[in-house]
Amino acid sequence: MQTIAPATQDQPLNLLADWISREQLAGELGIACDTLARWEARQLGPPCTRIGRKVLYRRTTVENWINAQEQTRPARTRRGRK
Asked: Which of 9, 15, 57, 69 is 20 to 30 Å from 43 at the Cα level?
């Protein structure tokens, strides 16, 4: 029977590898942190997670939110022409 050795404590887990701070996201989007805070209050922006006072965004969730914001333009119709 083979036993599995417990994980060593020498290497810390990188629990926040896929998460970015509000400041980092604001910088990547080219907007103010206050804008992200307003969007959060109005439930307009990307979903976030709070850990204490720190606000974090999962990169994949932000990417999905950005993709959902994409809008298609309706076909233009000509007015006054027959």
From this structure: 15
